[in-house]
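Continuing from the previous page...

OK, I double-checked the sequence for Glutathione peroxidase against my notes and this is the correct one:
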Amino acid sequence: MKVLPVLSLTLLALFGGQALAAECPALLQHELPKLRSKETLDLCQQFGGKPLLIVNTASHCGFTPQFKGLEALYKRYKDQGFEVLGVPSDDFKQEAASAEETAKVCFVNYGVTFAMTQPQHVTGDQATPLYRELIAQSGQSPRWNFYKYVVDRQGKVIAHFSSLTKPDDPDLIEAVERALESKP
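Thanks. Re-ran it with the corrected sequence; updated structure tokens here:
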């Protein structure tokens, strides 16, 4: 008699876990190494069901001061579930030589509190799976650093913006607010 409850719990754990993985959108079914950490960032756990802004960043770019505006945007909407994910990249040859220097630029120089990954490829054949999915959904690869993708609660790209678009741009804010209104 006692074997059945244990077996049922085991089956529930196995199949329940698969059901949870199936509910996670393809865009978020990835793990990336966190910046300034030995831990990885499970995108489903961290961002599943949340509106999200994903930005490829660089430490030595003319757009690097956008970190300040990205942080302000994050703080403005984070209590509503909004998240920002910064993905440093040297694809445009403007990222710091070390992850430590990247972390200093983000966390010390600009006071970033939103999630940041270790440097990743965001363009071409070497693009991380997250960026391959962003590109597939939006039809647009980042053309430069600080290219922005707004993702709704279902893990779908609903808007994308060039590097020239500042974090306080009305069109970007409107897209973020649309993502906030989306249903999980």
